[in-house]
């Protein structure tokens, strides 16, 4: 009797053969069931249930206590791939350790986010690494390598990159379409994904909720045309939650859910994350699509094969060989992971400005050996409170979680870390909140009753049994509601900007509305998918309504307590309150500042409020209440530091002008307070660098939905203004000199080398940044673009040699005329510096070769989407499966497209054939003209019975273009243009079909 294992478990066989053997044994129903996120077990084959999707952006999320590292944008500020790799290793180890205790913890991790941070108003800014695609790719590659693990055959976890593709807005995120021109696609959005995929540490991607060029990302043709051409791995595409239903739902892109599911599967989606743990709707849709002939079994088999290949690499089908089998719960929250969390938080701190106030001495005063140290000490004495530090503001005593954080096992706040260092008696604290009492128009005061005995230990979060989604968690109902009383309760009111408030009871708990509608002092912090802890005070008559923002309803006083109004109730049923302010936050801040030698104003955001998933910011400004805090502190104590702790950049030009020192760090995870304190006191020299531009105000930004960074002149690559703090900026407590930049070339590789010396008296990290710049380019190119970097510790007085290898192709760009990557001949520069605006050394580079060829329009025609520049134009879907067309963004205004260097040949064409579509009744017009203003003609495009019903419209040319000329095309009305061809009316050949044809 043979004891050989079945082929699927025989490690000696080729991996593809093992997967194919298993696939062949699955029934059709079993295969369809595997396409849902929660794939059921197949007991007859000893295949366990499997869940795609485990959040692990900066630690294991949603599954209980775990090590919490800084937010991703903070990790981006480290500019340290080695750090990211080590964090990835720690996170994947904790995933395995937590899974040993709870098998619901998944091994297919949905991390990292690699969307470049194009616009700092994006609500999910905290989830990305950088506005630069090269830095994003480098850090994502490192993190995914750590998540994957170092075994040659088996993966510790299987990381999935988010969110394919061009996704930087939460406003209307499931219905808005990003218009992404080919150059932006190939130079900006795709490279951030391509780097980690080509590195071989990525299991797949997750499409975004949004649309690109009019087509849902879950139907993106680039999944096959680009993504799966970068590697020979079986990449898995996991849908975002509920996104498959959006295709026939909010997006209305297909008429039925069966058609939508079929289209997604054909486009390359393998795992459908829909209807939470209920697979029935998804499997019914796929079965219906199969019966209607919209898909074949081969489509199902292809997706299942990819999913099984991923599970094979996680060791599922050969558990006896799994090198991770011995990882248990004892590998969670280890001393090494705690130390790594502290190191990461320290490396994320960015010193924005320092006039000599920092670092603080052991007594909390200026450092005596630093610039201005003795004068700073005299100022401290004059301020009254030498050796005492005031810590003020909403971030002073906070250690914030975000939506993708794990549960904090340990919590370090700035106030706590300062008290541990200096002693409680030398730390003065003011949280910056207003103290208010609310008088009820119907009599009495708003009153928070004392909770029952043991109320300090919250009951378990409630929600649907077995759900892994924290969005299902409901508020506590075991505490008495807020009510009316004879004696007022003084509440701490924090204004987060935009009229969004939180109210804290004297015991520190936030007022929160539960599912029963009653308001209780029950939440330690704001949180949840729908935040239940935010309110607004709206003027109403002689007082204010207290509106609960989570439900959108004002509050009323019922006999049992304060609750939100019922649906259909108007404001007349709501209680009217008179707000009595017992103390302004800025007054308390001034009092604390006057009593201290040094002031640290800790301002910033709560990651669940005013900028988060589902909600973009409307401004870069610091909330006015927080502006008042630093101004009040500065007015009484010039030794005031502004420490910004936030998920995104702020525009703080006045603080920069008036304060001696500013720092920024993202929410730093469990070690946040300790790390910031160590940076303030010089235990470590800050060496974080800004991963995105900090603009001086909102007027420096293009529209939120404008994804064309070239045309909009956005990000450090193209921004023409002066930022508040540039990309790559960050100061140090030491000084560094740069010397001797040389560049050599060997074939397609450039080698740049330079020396950097720490000329200061402190050991410190320096981040050497290498940029490339095209000199006198023929098309718009970045001012400079990051091509390499290295963060390295240099001892005081030490000189280090830095060497970078750069492909010559990194100097190039996407040639829209020919649809390929090209490096134009000509002059370039490699620039080494400490930021994108602090260039220390420059070396020339010359690239030879023939001049760029003009567009061969007579032979290949023109694809409309391959324009060089545009006005009022938007890219749209040419068909529902692939291809782009162009339409006016505003049909009421003309759209113009510029095509440079069109070669019409020596004999002028007399005819143009336009491939156009128009769904609306009436007519539209398309006109052609040379760049010198010579008109070539205009054609009328009648209704073609649909936006995808293209018709060839012939235009007789009147200008007889010859040679190489620039061409303008003007679109008027609701029309789509796919392409155009040029020829002679009596020519026997048909118009060119080289780029899609008719």
Q: Kindly report how far apart the N and C termini lie.
A: 64 Å
- What is the global morphology? globular
Counting helices, strands and paired strands, the structural category is alpha+beta
Helix content: 10-25%
Describe what is shown at a glance.
It is built from 21 helices and 49 strands.
Describe this entry's structure for a reader.
The chain has 998 residues and is α+β, with helices and mostly antiparallel strands. 21% of the residues lie in helices and 28% in strands. It is built from 21 helices and 49 strands. The strands form 13 sheets. Strands 15, 18, 19, 22, 23, 24, 25 and 26 form an 8-stranded antiparallel sheet that branches. A hairpin with a 2-residue loop joins strand 24 and strand 25 (561-564). The radius of gyration is 30 Å and the shape is globular. Residues 368-384, 457-462 and 987-998 have low confidence and may be disordered.
Features:
alpha+beta, globular
What's the arrangement of secondary structure elements?
Elements: H1 15-25, H2 28-33, E1 38-39, E2 50-55, E3 65-66, H3 72-78, H4 81-101, E4 108-113, H5 133-148, E5 158-164, E6 177-178, H6 182-198, E7 204-207, E8 211-212, E9 215-216, H7 222-225, E10 236-237, H8 243-248, H9 257-267, H10 280-291, H11 297-313, H12 335-347, E11 350-354, H13 373-383, E12 389-392, E13 407-408, H14 414-422, E14 427-430, E15 434-440, E16 445-447, E17 483-485, E18 491-495, E19 501-504, E20 510-513, E21 519-523, E22 535-540, E23 543-548, E24 553-558, E25 561-564, E26 576-583, H15 585-594, E27 598-604, H16 624-636, E28 640-645, H17 653-658, E29 661-665, H18 672-680, H19 709-712, H20 715-718, E30 736-746, E31 749-758, E32 764-774, E33 785-794, E34 799-807, E35 813-815, E36 820-822, E37 826-835, E38 838-847, H21 857-860, E39 862-863, E40 869-871, E41 873-877, E42 884-888, E43 895-903, E44 911-917, E45 923-930, E46 935-942, E47 951-956, E48 964-972, E49 976-983
Parallel strand pairs: 2-4, 3-13, 4-5, 5-7, 6-8, 7-10, 12-14, 12-27, 27-28, 28-29
Antiparallel strand pairs: 1-2, 8-9, 11-29, 15-18, 15-26, 16-17, 18-19, 20-21, 22-23, 23-24, 23-26, 24-25, 30-31, 31-34, 32-33, 32-37, 35-36, 37-38, 39-49, 40-43, 41-42, 43-48, 44-47, 44-49, 45-46, 45-48
């Amino acid at each position: 009797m043979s004891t050989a294992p079945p082929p699927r478990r025989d490690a000696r066989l080729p991996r593809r053969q093992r997967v194919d053997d298993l696939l062949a044994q699955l029934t059709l129903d079993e295969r369809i069931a595997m396409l849902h996120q929660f794939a059921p077990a197949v007991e007859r084959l000893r295949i366990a249930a499997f869940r795609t999707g485990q959040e692990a952006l900066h630690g294991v999320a949603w599954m209980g206590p775990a090590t919490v590292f800084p937010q991703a944008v903070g990790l981006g500020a480290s500019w340290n791939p080695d750090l990211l790799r080590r964090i990835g290793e720690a996170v994947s180890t904790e995933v395995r350790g937590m899974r040993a205790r709870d098998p619901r913890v998944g091994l297919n991790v949905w991390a990292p986010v690699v969307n470049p941070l194009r616009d700092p108003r994006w609500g999910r800014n905290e989830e990305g690494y950088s506005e630069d695609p090269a830095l994003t790719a480098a850090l994502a590659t490192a993190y995914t390598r750590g998540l994957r693990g170092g075994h040659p055959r088996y993966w510790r976890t299987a990381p999935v990159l988010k969110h394919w593709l061009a996704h930087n807005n939460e406003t209307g995120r499931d219905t808005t379409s990003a218009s992404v021109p080919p150059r932006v696609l190939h130079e900006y959005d795709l490279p951030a994904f391509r780097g980690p995929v080509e590195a071989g540490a990525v299991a797949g991607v997750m499409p975004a909720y949004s649309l690109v060029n009019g087509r849902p990302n879950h139907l993106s043709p680039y999944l096959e045309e680009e993504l799966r051409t970068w590697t020979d791995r079986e990449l898995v595409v996991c849908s975002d939650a509920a996104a498959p239903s959006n295709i026939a739902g909010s997006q209305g892109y297909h008429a039925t859910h069966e058609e939508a599911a079929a289209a997604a599967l054909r486009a390359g989606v393998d795992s459908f994350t829909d209807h939470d743990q209920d697979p029935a709707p998804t499997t019914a849709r796929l079965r219906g699509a199969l019966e209607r002939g919209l898909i074949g079994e081969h489509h199902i088999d292809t997706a299942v094969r990819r999913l099984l290949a991923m599970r094979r690499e996680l060791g599922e089908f050969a558990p006896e060989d799994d090198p991770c089998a011995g990882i248990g719960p004892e590998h969670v929250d280890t001393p090494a992971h705690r130390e790594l969390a502290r190191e990461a938080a320290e490396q994320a701190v960015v010193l924005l400005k320092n006039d000599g106030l920092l670092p603080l001495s052991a007594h909390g005063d200026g450092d005596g050996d630093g610039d201005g140290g003795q004068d700073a000490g005299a100022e401290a004495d004059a301020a009254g409170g030498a050796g005492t530090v005031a810590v003020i503001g909403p971030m002073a005593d906070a250690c914030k979680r975000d939506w993708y954080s794990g549960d904090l096992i340990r919590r370090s706040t700035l106030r706590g870390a300062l008290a541990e260092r200096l002693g409680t008696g030398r730390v003065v604290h003011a949280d910056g909140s207003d103290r208010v009492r609310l008088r009820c128009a119907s009599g009495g005061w708003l009153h928070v009753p004392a909770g029952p005995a043991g109320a300090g230990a919250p009951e378990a979060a409630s929600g649907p049994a077995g759900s892994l989604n924290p969005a299902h968690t409901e508020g506590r109902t075991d505490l008495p509601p807020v009510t009316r009383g004879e004696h007022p309760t003084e509440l701490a009111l924090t204004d987060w900007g935009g009229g969004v408030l939180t109210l804290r009871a004297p015991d520190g708990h936030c007022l929160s509305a539960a599912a029963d509608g009653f308001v209780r002092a029950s939440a330690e912090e704001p949180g949840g998918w729908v935040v239940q802890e935010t309110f607004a005070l709206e003027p109403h008559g002689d007082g204010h309504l207290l509106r609960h923002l989570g439900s959108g309803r004002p509050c009323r006083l019922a006999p049992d307590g304060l609750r939100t109004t019922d649906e259909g109730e108007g404001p007349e049923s709501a209680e009217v309150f008179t707000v009595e302010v017992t103390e302004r936050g800025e007054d308390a801040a001034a009092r604390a500042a006057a009593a201290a030698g040094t002031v640290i104003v800790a301002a910033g955001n709560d990651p669940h409020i005013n900028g988060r998933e589902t909600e973009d910011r409307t401004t870069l400004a610091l909330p006015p209440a927080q502006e008042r805090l630093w101004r009040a502190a500065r007015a009484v104590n010039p030794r005031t530091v502004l420490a910004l702790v936030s998920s995104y950049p702020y525009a703080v030009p006045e603080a920069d002008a008036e304060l001696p020192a500013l720092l920024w760090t993202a929410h730093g995870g469990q070690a946040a307070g300790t790390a910031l304190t160590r940076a303030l006191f010089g235990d470590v020299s800050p060496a974080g660098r800004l991963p995105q531009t900090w603009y001086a105000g909102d007027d420096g930004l293009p529209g939120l939905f404008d994804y064309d960074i070239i045309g909009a002149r956005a990000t450090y690559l193209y921004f023409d203004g002066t930022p508040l703090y540039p990309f790559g900026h960050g100061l140090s407590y030491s000084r560094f000199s740069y010397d001797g930049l040389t560049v050599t070339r060997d074939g397609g590789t450039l080698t740049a080398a330079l020396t950097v010396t720490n000329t200061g008296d402190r050991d410190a990290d320096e981040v050497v940044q290498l940029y490339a710049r095209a000199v006198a380019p023929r098309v718009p190119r970045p001012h400079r673009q990051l091509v390499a970097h290295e963060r390295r510790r240099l001892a005081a007085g030490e000189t280090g040699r830095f060497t970078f290898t750069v492909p010559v192709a990194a100097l190039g760009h996407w040639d829209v005329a020919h649809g390929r990557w090209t490096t134009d001949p000509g002059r370039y520069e490699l620039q080494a510096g400490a930021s994108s605006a602090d260039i220390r050394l420059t070396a020339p580079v010359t690239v030879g070769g023939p001049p760029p060829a003009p567009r061969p329009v007579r032979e290949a025609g023109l694809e409309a989407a391959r324009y060089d520049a545009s006005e009022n134009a938007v890219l749209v879907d040419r068909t529902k499966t692939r291809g782009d067309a162009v339409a006016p963004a505003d049909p009421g205004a003309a759209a113009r497209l510029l095509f440079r260097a069109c070669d019409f040949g020596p004999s002028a064409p007399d005819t143009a054939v336009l491939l156009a579509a128009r769904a609306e009744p009436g007519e539209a017009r398309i006109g052609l003209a040379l760049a010198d203003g010579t008109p070539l003609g205009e054609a009328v495009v009648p209704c073609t019975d649909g936006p995808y019903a293209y018709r060839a419209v012939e235009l007789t040319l009147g200008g007889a273009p010859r040679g190489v000329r620039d061409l303008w095309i003007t679109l008027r009305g609701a029309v789509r243009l796919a392409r155009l061809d040029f020829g002679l009316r009596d020519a026997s050949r048909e118009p060119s079909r080289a780029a899609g044809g008719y």
